[in-house]
Amino acid sequence: MCPGSFDPVTNGHLDIIGRASRLFDEVIVGVLINQSKTGLFSEDERIDMLGEVIQGYDNVRVLTFRGLLVDFCRAQEAGVVVKGLRAVSDFDYELQMAQMNIGLAGVETLFMPTNPLYSFLSSSLVKEVAKWGGDVSPHVPDLVAVRLRERLGPPPS
Ligand code: ADP
Question: Strands (DSSP E) along the chain, which ranges?
Answer without folding.
Answer: 2-4, 27-32, 60-65, 80-85, 108-113
